[in-house]
Amino acid sequence: MSDFHDDLALLPGRGAQTWIGGAWRAAHSGRTFAVHRPATGAHLADVADCTPHDVDEAVTAAQQAWPAWRARTAAQRAQALHDWHAAIVAHTEPLARLMTHESGKVIAESRGEVAYGAAFVAWFAEEARRAYGDTIPAPSADRRIVVIRQPVGVSAAITPWNFPLAMVTRKVAPALAAGCTVVLKPAAETPLTALALAVLAERAGVPAGVLNVVPSSDAAGIGEALCADVRVRKLSFTGSTAVGKRLMAQCAPNLTRLSLELGGNAPFLVFDDADLDPAVDGAIASKFRNTGQTCVCVNRIYVQAAVHDAFVERLAARVAALRSGDGLDERAQVGPLIHARALEKVQTLVADAVSQGASVVTGGEARGGLFYAPTVLRDATPAMRLAKEEVFGPVAPVFRFHTEAEAVAMANATEYGLAAYLYSRDIGRCWRVAEALESGMVGINDVRLGTEVAPFGGVKHSGFGREGSRHGMEAYEELKYLNFGGI
Ligand code: NAP
Known about the structure:
The structure is a single chain. The longest helix has 22 residues, at about 105-130. The protein contains 14 helices and 20 strands. It has 2 domains: about 1-260 and about 460-480, Aldehyde Dehydrogenase, Chain A, domain 1 (3-Layer(aba) Sandwich), CATH 3.40.605; about 265-450, 3-Layer(aba) Sandwich (Aldehyde Dehydrogenase, Chain A, domain 2), CATH 3.40.309. The strands form 5 sheets. Strands 14-15-16-13-12-17-18 form a 7-stranded mixed beta sheet, with helices on both faces. Strands 9-8-7-10-11-19 form a 6-stranded mixed beta sheet, sandwiched between helices. It is an alpha/beta fold. Bound molecules: NADP nicotinamide-adenine-dinucleotide phosphate. NADP nicotinamide-adenine-dinucleotide phosphate (NAP) binds near residues 162, 240 and 390. The site of NADP nicotinamide-adenine-dinucleotide phosphate has 27 residues, from helix 7 and helix 8.
């Protein structure tokens, strides 16, 4: 029995099982893989290790469940989603603890993620009832033109470990609302939250086969199987740019529809007319959330020369006071990194920056296990690796700039384009810079981008497609144009 028996209570005997076609069962391989706590390295649970054989069964189950699910009225699908939402909210604490165990994020953030993730389910329950079409004035008097929306069909979702709950609901809820069925492959680091969501969907009355979950230690094999299956009509992926490009190539033979929410390299611009304290608050909230492991985390901080030193001083004082610890400790503000590779990458990027002239203002060292000290670097330059790559860790490099044009050029000098932030009290500058930044989202004097009501997504190598908002269901809908003649 796991030492964390009480915190696994949402998964009674389910941890080592898949959820396929409305049945909990072992993977065909009979194998399991281990899930560990990043905070301590302790063994948490063993999870069913699916292979393409299980994927085939899951797609079959989803295909069989699709006609009845799409035939339900929008109000009936909405009700199932409302019931799922209520079940998720009612289990906020056990879901949050599970997420903190497997992802390492601090418990307050896990509770926030339950609320954030649940909000997508409620939102798309509402949107299900508003899948409106169009009527279009026809080119001749004896015709009428109507456009309707129809579900694309079986949809696959591949999700990352950094938001084990919200990335699942952000895909599954709009798919179900649109009338699609889903095969979900959660990240190998965090499959337990996804399985717990399936338990709650089952309790909420989501019918057999409408949601299927196939955890696996063989992500590449599962990805290939999903892309090769012609019955899968849509793939929605959130993860790294490298894997996204690979999946896009794999989807080409079947022309499988794709949404790609990929990596970021968010710039954070502080102009000399900014209010510095809110800018420092924003930088910390965005940079250190989830220990710097979010796709919209600030990656590069650019500060105008006149306020540069004052900003660095205030930022460093606050960062030095951040408390690291096991996420289950209510006092912890920053948790561990997800795995040893992530820690090594952070160490390598900091060493590269220091070797090229950056100075460590605070932090700059590993702290045992998977912990890295919250860090501020100054004198960062565009030549350093951390200017070009996602750090994905608690390291804030500060760059200096002189003019607005220089700031925009440096901010845009990246292949990524997910989130960007700027702080200024000059309304004209806010508009000019926000419009000039090459990114899907811009936070202006505010870093809180994630909300179910707004379209989330990127440009350039950060991918395409938007999740959340009234646009979120479009990824799971086909437009069909009906041309009526002889009127
Ligand atoms: P990753 O390695 O790409 O993993 C993401 C998911 O893809 C996991 O489920 C992973 O499974 C799976 N996967 C890995 N290789 C695969 C393959 N060859 N075929 C099919 N699936 C495969 O990304 P990560 O490093 O875990 O996640 C962090 C990345 O996600 C960052 O770049 C971050 O910016 C990005 N992200 C983007 C958004 C957004 O909305 N744009 C949101 C969150 C995160 P395993 O875990 O089993 O390997």
